[in-house]
Write a structure and sequence with these properties.
single chain, 260 residues, alpha+beta, Phosphorylase Kinase, domain 1, 2 domains, 6-stranded antiparallel sheet, 9 helices, 6 strands, 47% helix, globular
């Protein structure tokens, strides 16, 4: 068993200690005792699980939940499925809501002045892409998007390469007391990429080494980088090589663009 396998197994370890005698966890627990980094991660993970459990216990279950689910299952057997726009899917919205609850529980437990882990931020932002949200501005012109973000969020100096000459819309999310801005682009082949931009002062510099900047999260290939003031996260269901090429051009433009 290596560290990654141990971490994957320990993610399902229950915070109340009921799994401590389970042979299935024995090797992973022993690994965590010997590895300082894994031990610190495991303690953080257990603390997060406790916070989430408490919050879920405070949420009441609707009395009609079971009959509603059964009725929905019967209806789905008879209905013809139609394509659902990615940001309007109720099923994805429910799943993303659960993910965001996990993220928010940990974030607010840590306090608004704490550092933000890049992995946590990436998970929350890609979960947003699977939620049922409405664009604050829906427009195909990048210049209109930039003007709106400048006026409403004081987000200046954004520059986009020729590949990103057609936008779908933009949205400002809340992440603790931070306000990440999302700009969605339509590529020439009709695929989409999504760029999140947020103030970078709360992120740890160590999170932006090459091994942590590229990752697949919530079915999206992602790439993150930072300039002097901001953190950028590019996500999309596109080939990682292509995503890296687009990110490289965005990096060059963001490095030379003036920020007020």
């Amino acid at each position: 068993m290596d560290k990654q396998e141990a971490k994957l197994l320990l993610q399902s370890y229950r915070p109340d200690g009921r799994d401590s005698a389970d042979p299935a966890f024995a090797e992973a627990l022993e690994f965590a005792q010997k590895d300082r980094e894994l031990s610190a991660w495991f303690e953080q993970e257990r603390s997060l699980d406790v916070v989430i459990s408490r919050r879920l216990q405070k949420s009441s279950v609707p009395e009609d939940l079971r009959p509603s689910i059964l009725a929905g299952q019967r209806s789905q057997r008879r209905m013809v499925r139609r394509p659902v726009t990615w940001w309007k899917s109720p099923a994805l919205a429910w799943a993303a809501g659960i993910v965001l609850l996990f993220v928010a529980a940990y974030f607010f437990r840590s306090g608004s002045g704490s550092h933000v882990a890049l992995a946590m931020y990436r998970n929350a932002m890609t979960a947003n892409l699977q939620s049922s949200f409405t664009f604050d501005l829906q427009d195909t012109q990048p210049d209109h998007i930039k003007q709106w973000l400048d006026h409403n969020l004081a987000l200046t100096g954004l520059q986009f390469p020729p590949e990103l000459d057609k936008t779908i819309g933009c949205k400002v999310f809340n992440f603790g007391d931070m306000k990440p801005a999302l700009i969605c682009f339509s590529l020439p082949d009709q695929k989409m990429v999504h760029l999140f931009v947020v103030d970078g002062s709360r992120f740890e510099a160590k999170d932006f080494d090459s091994s942590r900047c590229t990752s697949k999260c919530n079915d999206y290939n992602t790439l993150a980088w930072r300039d002097s003031k901001r953190v950028f996260l590019l996500a999309g269901n596109v080939d990682p090589v292509r995503l890296n090429e687009i990110a490289g051009k965005l990096k060059q433009l963001s490095a030379t663009a003036p920020i007020q």
